[in-house]
Write a structure and sequence with these properties.
Layout: H1 11-14, E1 20-28, E2 31-40, E3 47-51, H2 62-67, E4 74-78, H3 97-115, E5 120-125, H4 128-137, E6 143-149, H5 164-169, H6 174-181, H7 201-208, H8 218-226, H9 235-251, E7 256-261, H10 271-277, E8 283-286, H11 297-311
Parallel strand pairs: 3-4, 3-5, 5-6, 6-7, 7-8
Antiparallel strand pairs: 1-2, 2-4
């Protein structure tokens, strides 16, 4: 997989992500798009894929990477297509769980070719969880360890009710204006935190910066609408594949850990469901909110260390 020069960052932002950066081309929605990737740590050491969700980017893991500095680990922090400094298709239609899974899968295959990266530890939060798991469902032999954080694994229960946020995202016109014109929800990320001050100032600006302007804001609303609002939703089949992969991981009692922000108003309630999927995995329950990487990076780093040592 050929690597291309990454986009330039303003000096204030570049200083916050002192990582190796590059761009690769991945398939997405019937064409190819550029994916921005940040890495740190020596090649040839145990690889860890850290995948963000909506509407963030690899920046979300910078504190976790700092907490793991000095460890012999190869950390890989890509930006999902449509977010961060990856390409941003203007249409909503290409944003499906299958397309995002194929894009991350292509990245993993490319890293195997360029760095010999075979088995890896996967760390997923928000949509990063299902997207990474969907990619690995087609490559189950490569999943050596698993750390799950404030994410949904598997299709919804028959009696489920979508959150207010996700119900709002499906409302015509008003949701489009909120997401694409007014920059929702990236302007209010602090409101889903245990400590709202964890996303303020330049940190808040760093999340808003890649999504400047109407044309760059298709992904936040598209990923919100990727969350099932019925059992007939297109994401349900892919989510079932994700659940099956985690269930297989659990049957083998392969290395795993759960780190959760219990003050998350969006996905906090899913901790018990995740614990049932991985009943042997140690659980670190915290007072963090949805973007717990900003609030409890040391606890996440501890889980990554533990799982990686068991896996390798």
């Amino acid at each position: 997989m050929q690597r291309f020069a990454p986009p330039e960052l303003p000096a204030w932002l570049a200083a916050m992500v002192p990582f190796e950066r590059f761009v690769v081309k991945v398939p997405f929605g019937g064409t190819h798009h550029r994916m921005h990737v940040m890495t740190t740590g020596p090649e040839g050491t145990p690889p860890v894929l850290l995948l963000h969700g909506n509407p963030t980017w690899g920046f979300l893991y910078r504190k976790v990477a700092a907490a793991l500095a000095g460890e012999r680990l190869r950390l890989v922090m890509p930006d999902l297509v449509g977010l961060g400094f990856s390409d941003k298709p203007r249409d909503l239609a290409p944003h499906t769980l299958e397309n995002h899974g194929r894009a991350i899968g292509a990245l993993l295959d490319g890293l195997r070719e360029s760095e010999g990266m075979e088995r890896l530890v996967f760390v997923g939060q928000d949509w990063g969880g299902p997207i990474g798991l969907r990619a690995l469902a087609d490559r189950p032999e490569r999943l050596a360890g698993l750390v799950l954080m404030n994410t949904g694994v598997g299709p919804p229960n028959p009696d489920f009710r979508p959150t207010k946020f996700h119900r709002f995202s499906h409302r015509p016109v008003v949701s489009t204006l909120a997401f694409r014109l007014f920059g929702f929800p990236q302007r209010i990320l602090h409101k889903v935190q245990g400590d709202p001050s964890s996303i303020r100032g330049r940190v808040a600006k760093a999340y808003r910066y890649p999504l400047r302007g109407w044309s760059r804001r298709a992904a936040p609303i598209a990923l919100a609408r990727m969350v099932p609002n019925s059992l007939d939703h297109p994401s349900v089949a892919g989510l079932a594949r994700c659940k099956a992969l985690v269930e297989d991981h659990a049957r083998r009692e392969a290395p795993a850990a759960i780190v959760w922000g219990d003050r998350d108003p969006i996905l906090g309630r899913l901790r018990a469901r995740t614990e049932r999927l991985l009943p042997y995995a140690p659980v670190t329950a915290t007072e963090a909110g949805h973007f717990l990487q900003e609030e409890v990076p040391e606890q996440i780093a501890d889980a990554v260390r533990r799982v990686t040592r068991e896996a390798f």
